[in-house]
Structures are given as structure tokens and as C-alpha cells.
Amino acid sequence: MLLEGTKDEAERSMNKTGSKRQSISKIENDEIKDLDLAALYNESFKKYDEGQVVDGRIVAIREKEVLVDIGYKSEGVVPLQEFSDPSALNVGDVVPVLFENAEDESGMIVISKRKADRIRCWDDIISNYQEGSEINGKIFKKVRGGFMVDIGMEAFLPASLVDIKPTRNLDQFLGLSTNFKIAKINYKRKNIVLSRKACLEEEKKEARTKILEGIKEGQILQGKVKNITDFGGFIDLGGVDGLLHITDMSWGRVSHPSEIVSLGQDIEVMVIGYDEKTQRVSLGLKQKEANPWEQADSKYPVNAKVKGKVVNILPYGAFIELEKGIEGLVHISELSWTKRITHPSEMLSIGDEVEAIILSIDKDAKKIALGLKQTEVNPWLIVEEKYAVGSDVQGTVRNITDYGAFVELEPGIDGLIHISDISWVKKINHPREVFKKSEKITARILSVDKNNRKISLGIKQLTNDPWQELSKSLTPGEVVQGTVTKVVNFGVFVDIKNNLEGLIHVSEIPENKTGSLDQHFKAGAALNVMILKVDVDSRKIALTLKGDIPQEVEAPAQEANAQAGSSGQENATTTEAETPEDPQQ
Predict the structure, then answer these.
(1) Most buried of 144, 208, 322, 342, CB within 10 angstroms?
(2) C-alpha–C-alpha distance, residues 165 and 163, integer Å
(3) Contact criterion met (CB below 8 Å) for 458 and 390
(4) Judging by beta carbons within 10 Å of its beta carbon (0-12, 13-18, 19+), is residue 85 exposed, middle or buried?
(5) Cα distances (angstroms) measured from residue 340 to each of 317, 333, 344
(6) What is the SS3 assignment for 5?
(7) Could you give the CA distance from residue 56 to residue 30 in angstroms, rounded to a whole number?
(8) Region of 175 on the Ramachandran plot (φ > 0 left; ψ -120 to 50 alpha; else beta)
(9) Domains of the chain, earliest start first
């Protein structure tokens, strides 16, 4: 019984244990089943790595954002501004986005359309482009040092590479869509630097090559004045610069290229030369027209009277334009027969219409000599008839020189009174002693040379030569009273009779008075002297103070003052330039 009870208990205990095991197994099976469902649920979502670009579908479009489903637990939100054309978006559109994070604070995944575009564009660029490749883009933003360009991603364009020429107005390039060269690719930072300048230079080089291949002499081309210098102008022919030299601008005279062309001017020029080695192009403007000088010698014969316009005035003459491209020069000496011209502007002004005579023409040298005075009668041709030798004339002292005085007889006709023709007997050291400027005088015509345009005049010839008569009354050894007129270093001049002067040489003055002559002899003082010698041929009278001569006497006060007034202290202290020559030297 005991055994049976024990057995029953054992069976009951075993049954209880089995039931418990079944309960535990059921719980375990339910948990396993829940885990399988979770696994299946999790497996139903796609798995992405952070930084991976995936395709997503637009499920909603809101005011400022777009809801995108990438097949993950939750949707992602993309700002509307990350789309280039938000108005073209539709629900259901598939767009690439960058998976940045599994969820943010709100439990939504973090995705970016802009970053996805950048990555895909970067991959496309490094796969299909390299440094030096050309790519299209649009300048959309100005930043420090340059611009940002949209090429599918943002690329940097330095300001120095935006144009061939430096420019201050950078705003003009904003919004520009054009081609750029990839200047540099930074693979590490995924940055790209662009150059618009490189594209422009290449385009210019291609245009230059195209122009140079077809260029030939005589060809007419359109261009724009690019630069102006003193020797010419540089013309942009569309990628090729040509030189328009100043000598090829006009058949006439050109003082400066700016007279013909201006900066930025559109101009039509002719190719007159091309050097293939240096690729230099020479251009001409005047070559488009016929050379007016070819018929100039027959059109402008010597002695013909012509009309023209004053176009330029220089110190040596004036240029007269006879027609476009042909100018003649009126030298200053050909302006007037009579007027003394120091500068052509005294007679002519730019723009004046004048008549002139052709004096000479050199077609090859493109030179024409003109004369204005030849249109009038030369007064020197009739000067011999008008001013006969021996006749007396009146005139005005125009100029005084060391050797004489010029007297104007009529405008442009002067005569010269030489210093030797002023007085028969008086020693004249300078014409200023006798003449004053603008003074009216009478003179005698001594000679006329119309070829050299010279007239000689004389004052002393108005009276007879008194020398012969005066000299006859003078006897060597005779003591006479005179007046000191001048004291010089080699002696003393004395007026002994009616302006007849004699010289007391220093050797004929007593030794006690030779130390300093101007201390012992004063101009205007009376003096007794002895006549030593009379030389009629050379008109010289030698005097002496040696021998039996009465002592020096004073002239009357009135006479002495008059003599001093006429001679003056200036004569007593004659300068070296005015000092007469020592007759004994």
C-alpha cells in the first residue's frame, strides 16, 4: 500500500511537472513567435548606411517642405528650397536624397536632396571631367574673392579668372550662363575651381588663327580702335590686333593719331602688310582712297595762284591745305615783302582762307612750297627808281646798333646809316651819341642794292667835307686852345675847332700827369695844346703837351657846362667796348 501510495504520488507529481513544462513551452513558443514577427517586420524595411545616396518617392508637398519616403520606418523631410524648381514637383516623383541619420529628435529620418545632388554630381564630374576640361555653368552668387557657379554642384570662380581684362564692375557677371574651364580639382575636399578667362583666351586664339589664315594684302576689314599712341593706333580685328601707323592714316599731314581716330571707334581699314613669322598686321586708312599726289604736279604747276585754308602754324611757317590730303608750306620768309615777321601767327590764324603762289613742288617727297608775298608786287623791284642815289629822304630811327642806325623809309624798307657816315670830323664811339629811337631824321641815299635789299644812308653827306679847309688852318708847332672831350687809357681827345678832334697820346703828356689821366683831365675842361702833326689822308691830328705851352686854363663857366652836358661823365669813363683804338698801336 505504501508502495502504491508512493507510486500514485509519484505519478501525480510527474503529471504536475509535465503540465508545468507544457506551460513553459507554450510561453517560450509565443515569445519566439513574437520575435520572428519583429524580425520579419524589420526585414520588411530597407537597410541604408549613413552617407548613402538613395532614391525616395515624394508622398506630400507642403508650404516649405517635401515629405519623402525612402522605404524606411519613417519618412524624411526635405526643405523646399533644396529643389531647383519647386513648382515642377509632383507627389509620386522619385528623387535622389542623402541618408544622413536613422532618426532625429522627432523620430524622423534625416535626408538631404542638395547633398545627394552634390555627391552624384561630384561623382559624375570626376568620372567624365578632368582639369582643363570645359563645363557649362551659371554664376549665381558673388562671394569674397570671386563667384560661386552652379555646375550641378557649387564651384568657385576667382575674380581674376572671370575675364581677360581686369574689371571693377563684378556685378555685371551675376546670372551669366556660359562655359568654364576646370582650373583645379581638390579630390580631398571635393572642391572645384573654374576659369572663364581660359575659355575666352582659347576662343580668342581660335578667332586669331582663323583670321590670320585668311588674311591677305589689300583686304578690307572691320575693326575697333583699341589703343592710341603717338605713332599710331592699334585696331582690334576680332582677336587679332593690327597697327594703323600715323603715316598711313591720311595722305595729308597728321600731327597726332587722335586727329583721325578715337578710342572705341568702329573703323574700316585695309591690310597693307602681313608678316607670317611675327604675325604682325599692318593696316592703312589712306590706302582706301586714291593718292592725290599722283596728279599734284600737273594740278599745281609752279607760279600758279591757289586758294587754301590754314591748318597749322609753327615757328618756321604755316601749312595751307589745298585739298584733302595735299598741304603746302608757306615759310616765314615768304609771308611779306616788307613786314618783319617773328612768328607766322602775327599774320595768319588757323582756319584763315588765303591765296598763295606755288613756288616749287616735289611730288615724290609730297612737298609744296607756297608764297603769300608773291601775290603782291615786290617793293624792292622799284626801290632804285623811288630812292635815287644822291637824293635826300626822311625816315624814322627804328633800331640802333654798335655799327650804325637803321632808318625806316617806309614799312619794310630800311636804310642803314653806318657809324662812319655820321660826322666828317667828330669821333663817334656809338650811334647812341647822335640818334634816339623813333627820332625823325633826314639822310642822303648813298647806295641801293635791290638784290640784297640794302640801302646805305649818310648824315655827314648832307654837308660838305670841312676837313680840307679846317686842316689848312692848322700848323704843326702852333699852340691852340681846345676842350677835353674824352679821356682814355692811351691819351686824351681834345676838340680844337668846330668838332675837329685831336689826340694827345700818353707819350706826349708830361710824366707828372701820366699816372692817372682821369685825375688830371676832365671832360669839358679847357686846355692849351700844341699841334704836333696833321695827317690829311687818315684824318688824324696829333697833339702834345710837351714843350713851351702855357698852363691849362679854364673855359668860361657857361661853355664848360655846355661841354660837360654834351659829353658827360660817361665819356670821361668810357668803357672798354667804346674806347677808341690807340692810333700808335
Answers:
(1) 322
(2) 5
(3) no
(4) exposed
(5) 14, 9, 10
(6) helix
(7) 36
(8) left
(9) 28-128 (2.40.50.140), 129-201 (2.40.50.140), 215-288 (2.40.50.140), 293-375 (2.40.50.140), 379-462 (2.40.50.140), 474-572 (2.40.50.140)
Q: What is the pLDDT of residue 2?
A: 36
Grid coordinates representing 393 are: 629822304
Q: CA-CA distance, 585 to 583, in Å (whole number)? A: 6
DSSP string for 211-278:
HHHH--TT-EEEEEEEEE-SSEEEEE-SS-EEEEEGGGT-SS--S-GGGT--TT-EEEEEEEEEETTT
- Lowest mean pLDDT segment, chosen from 10-24, 252-266, 468-482: 10-24
- Helical (H) or strand (E) element with 198: helix 196-214
Give the pLDDT confidence score for residue 5 in this predicted structure.
Answer: 46
- Quick one: average pLDDT of 158-182? 90
Given a contact cutoff of 8 angstroms between Cβ atoms, the answer to whether 563 and 483 are in contact is yes
**472-516 residue pLDDT tens:** 778 888 888 899 988 888 899 998 877 788 899 998 888 877 678
**DSSP type of residue 556:** P
CA count, 13 A, side-chain hemisphere, 399? 9
C-alpha span between 538 and 473 (Å, rounded): 17
Name the band, by pLDDT with cuts 50, 70 and 90, for residue 229. Answer: very high
CB 476 within 8 A of CB 436: no
Distance CA 158, CA 170 (A): 11
Find out whether 227 and 220 touch, Cβ atoms under 8 Å. Answer: no
**Gap between the terminal Cα atoms of the chain:** 198
- Selected residue with higher pLDDT from 471 and 115: 115
pLDDT digits (tens, 9 = 90+) for 273-318: 888 788 888 999 988 888 888 888 889 999 999 999 999 999 999 9
What backbone phi and psi angles, to 5 degrees, belong to 118?
-60, -45
Residues 325, 251 contacting (CB under 8 angstroms): yes
Q: Find, among 158, 72, 74, 85, the residue nearest to 117 by Cα.
A: 85
